[in-house]
Specification:
This protein is mainly beta. It is 7% helix and 46% strand.
């Protein structure tokens, strides 16, 4: 018989490029004797989901997708976002005509979902699409090959009137199984919907837990929420409990499958925006990019473990780090949401908030977010800044306009240098590159240099070139009828590169 050679090295490398982990070790082979340095390789596949933009007929939404220029994998390249399928509940339908109509509608929706809303054709140039009204769907998508590393997408929605008035911006998220949302609410003045989007071909089951200042809120309907394959479900948080709580923490987990999760928050008095998930629980957190003209800043934090947390609250301002008067520390009881009204703590200068343990030997993991208000009275507008990880090697935010973008960079540790690249415009223009030095313990807010000859929108890519870690966010502002509407997106590492442990031995199976 022929001998069959099965190399596991290639399979391990592909798996690691997708998941970030792979190891092959021959049985009985001491790992330390054959270990090799891990290789840094570009991911070969990435997934994103975007929630349905708005339930307002006045909504005007722009989708923007982008992949930075750089090295990519050898796999076939594609990057597309397609409409999610509508959720149809016809299990109890007994009328044959109605059942047939529902089936036909489902077939049409399935056919429509196969047509991309937008597709990236080449790295380094953003693509845009528009959708108006309340019928714009959630999106699901995948990028492969050279278009996968750093692939990102954003949807920006402008609503000029009604209960959802505001500029709502959200970076489309990678599917996961665990999300924390400090700053959500079931108050009567709020309409907070949590959007659950399933990108896979099998259904997912999710649980939603709510925690207020007194602990867990009673709920009998937050468990076992089914999210059908390639579909999106929006859940009004106030329907999960009879308790009206102004500031709470929502925790979303899945029993099966993966989802993308994000909260759309509408305030009767202050506009609307998306609340994205906080960084995973950690003893030290950074929330970058509080606007210089913020009129109100509220910190919301939660300790998910069994221990209470005591944290220092520090503002990293334009020139130094200091603690806000009267709010130098915050005590967070286990499984209870804590908040602090920091008022207008920036006082005309940009800043970023850092939370660190009061005792270094007791760094209790927490999650946190900021609710930021600009303007006063009926001209108020809100945005949310969740705790976020550092830029790392590279991070990107798409959908920047000729005016209105502000990039905030903060270095909580050592002084750092970053390179900021403005991509070519979606309709034309040449990329522009600038470098900045961010001093230790400060926040640098800059107006990015737009591409020369810009047409359309462009993407900003931030790369750390030396020094300590840098945390970043981008604020986008648009004026409407005297209201300075704005939204803030954070820039965590895009994880476009992963460490791939080298296979320690090529295992072959020989058939006689």
């Amino acid at each position: 018989m022929k001998s069959t050679h099965l190399s596991l090295i290639a399979g391990a490398a592909v798996l690691a490029a997708i998941t970030g982990f792979a190891t092959v070790t021959a049985p009985g082979t001491p790992a330390e004797s054959t270990a090799k340095p891990a290789a840094l390789l570009p991911v070969e596949r990435a997934g994103l989901v975007c929630p349905a933009p708005s339930n307002s007929d006045l909504a005007e939404t722009q989708y923007t997708a982008f992949t930075p220029a750089g090295e990519g994998g050898e796999a076939e390249a594609a990057a597309e976002l397609k409409p999610a399928l509508p959720v149809v509940d016809d299990e109890d339908e007994t009328d044959p005509k109605k059942a047939r109509k529902a089936e036909e509608a489902a077939e049409k929706a399935k056919a429509k979902a196969e047509k991309p809303v937008l597709a990236v054709k080449e790295p380094g140039k953003p693509v845009v699409a528009e959708a108006n009204g309340s019928g714009a769907p959630a999106l699901v998508g995948t990028a492969t090959g050279k278009l996968a590393p750093g692939w990102t997408a954003q949807q920006t929605t402008e609503v000029t009137a009604g209960g959802s008035r505001g500029l709502l911006g959200v970076t489309c998220t990678a599917p996961d199984t665990d999300f924390w949302f400090p700053g959500a609410s079931t108050a009567t003045s709020r309409q907070d919907y949590i959007h659950l989007t399933n990108p896979d071909d099998t259904g997912a089951v999710a649980d939603i837990e709510l925690y207020g200042p007194e602990g867990a809120l009673k709920s009998d309907v937050g468990d076992g929420i089914t999210v059908p394959a390639r579909s999106s479900v929006a859940v009004l948080l106030s329907t999960l409990t009879s308790e009206a709580v102004d500031q709470l923490t929502a925790h979303v987990t899945t029993r099966s499958g993966r989802i993308g999760a994000v909260v759309m928050s509408a305030d009767d008095n202050a506009g609307s925006d998306w609340i994205t998930a906080s960084e995973d629980p950690s003893g030290t957190l950074v929330m970058p990019g509080i606007p210089a003209d913020a009129t109100s800043v509220q910190l919301v934090a939660f300790a998910p473990g069994e221990d209470d947390a005591d944290v220092k609250v520090q503002l990293m301002g334009k020139n130094a780090t200091f603690s806000p008067a009267g709010n130098a520390t915050l005590h967070i009881k286990s499984s209870m949401t804590a908040s602090a009204d920091l008022k207008d703590l920036t006082r005309g200068e940009p800043g970023s908030l850092r939370l660190t343990p009061v005792r270094k030997d007791r760094a209790t993991p927490i999650v946190a977010a900021l609710r930021v208000v600009r303007g006063k009275g009926d001209q108020q507008e809100i945005a949310y800044i969740p705790a976020t990880g550092p830029v790392g090697a590279r991070a990107t935010v798409p959908d920047n306009r000729a005016k209105g973008s502000t990039l905030s960079l903060t270095a909580p540790g050592a002084t750092a240098k970053v390179k900021v690249t403005a991509s070519a415009g979606s309709g034309g223009g040449e990329p522009a590159v600038e470098t900045y030095t961010v001093k230790a313990g400060t926040t640098l807010a800059v107006t990015p240099k737009a591409p020369e000859g810009l047409k359309g929108s462009y993407a900003l890519t931030v790369e750390t070139t030396s020094g300590g870690p840098v945390h970043a966010s981008r604020s986008l502002a648009l004026a409407s009828d005297g209201v300075q509407m704005f939204t803030v997106q954070t820039l965590p590492d895009d994880r476009g590169m992963v460490e791939v442990p080298s296979a320690r031995q090529d295992l072959s199976v020989l058939d006689d």
